[in-house]
Design goal:
Elements (H helix, E strand, L loop, with lengths): L7 H52 L1 H4 L15 E11 L2 E11 L12 H89 L1
Antiparallel strand pairs: 1-2
Helix pairs in contact: 1-3
Length: about 200
């Protein structure tokens, strides 16, 4: 603990600091709770989307063999043209929220292309969309966990260091000032008694 000045001015400064810490701490605690809750919700959503992707990939397994057909190349129809997200504010920070994936129009000859192509493109695009959504959720969770770590450190700093330190400084300064006041009163009484003794001695003479 840094050495403090044992003065009334320092006492006021420490009291002001304590009031500020105690006013700010509940805000930090609330932010920590909001972040923890959002992380739980995002973890649950991530698990849900991972399960959906697993089922989707199992379902599109029937198309994998058809992708080797040299007459039909659908890979160019599966490249995302744009991934659309929007920000969501959680306790003062923004995380990305997935909206959709836009693909370029699948432009091919309907008469010369096998009938399975439409269904295959739709299935693969659904799988790709889920992968992009999962990636977006994971990025958001990284941001949330980073902010939670910083907020938790600040909560601990206020709870375990700043507030106890200010309280102890206030206690020490009050003790010192109290002792000084008591000593001053004692010296005043001694001086008064000596004056009275001198007055009495002079009167007796």
């Amino acid at each position: 603990m840094a050495k403090i000045k044992l003065t009334k001015g320092e006492l006021k400064r420490q009291r002001d600091a304590l009031a500020q810490f105690e006013r700010y701490l509940p805000t930090l605690q609330l932010k920590k709770q909001q972040l923890q809750l959002e992380i739980l919700q995002q973890d649950s959503l991530l698990e849900e989307k991972n399960q959906a992707l697993l089922k989707k990939n199992q379902a599109i397994g029937i198309w994998i063999g058809l992708l080797t057909d040299e007459k039909v190349d659908i890979k160019t129809f599966l490249l995302p043209a744009r991934i659309i997200t929007h920000p969501k504010n959680i306790a003062g920070i923004d995380i990305p929220v997935f909206d959709t994936v836009e693909f370029n129009d699948a432009d091919y000859d309907f008469f010369l292309t096998p009938l399975w192509v439409d269904a295959a493109i739709t299935s693969f695009r659904q799988s790709i969309t889920l992968k992009k959504e999962i990636s977006t959720i994971e990025r958001g969770i990284v941001v949330l966990r980073h902010e939670l770590r910083i907020t938790s450190q600040r909560v601990n700093l206020f709870e375990k260091v700043k507030i106890p330190e200010a309280q102890e400084n206030i206690r020490l300064i009050k003790i010192y000032i109290g002792d000084q006041m008591a000593n001053a009163v004692g010296r005043s009484k001694i001086a008064k008694r000596k004056i009275e003794e001198l007055v009495l001695a002079g009167g007796a003479a």
